[in-house]
Predict the structure of Transposase.
Amino acid sequence: MSDNYLTVIPTDPYWQPGKDAADRAAVVLSEMLSDDARRGLEAKWHDSVEVVHCFANLERISCPRCGTELAPGWWGDAVSQCYDEGFSTLMVTVPCCDVETSLNELVYDWPMGFARFRIEVLYPNRAWLTDGELASLAGALGHPLRQILIHI
Ligand SMILES: [Zn+2]
């Protein structure tokens, strides 16, 4: 038995909407879902930044500058180090280019990210949101969004 989530997070890992904006976005998203899938929709706020991992869907993580694949061990250590500092920063130095970048801006295939707010749908029973759907959802929330398909 596996679980699937369709999750949307703000592109800014520290940004959080107010309750009204989150409610508006939840209504817009629920209109993109079947009646069954709607029951699995939930908006969640967190005090600190969380990793929004796509789990089994993750194939590779690469450098946004040169495209080199980053070793899972390096990534895990980098996340642990930022976690130990309460994710007050997500800045890391990539080993390939020796430049500083945000963990949130690494190239994740499939997408994942970091956030203090998410709307997630358990058993969404649909594929990726289209660009148009994601744009209208972002409009309702008042902030650009990244979507993540989680497979556990
Ligand atoms: Zn690089």
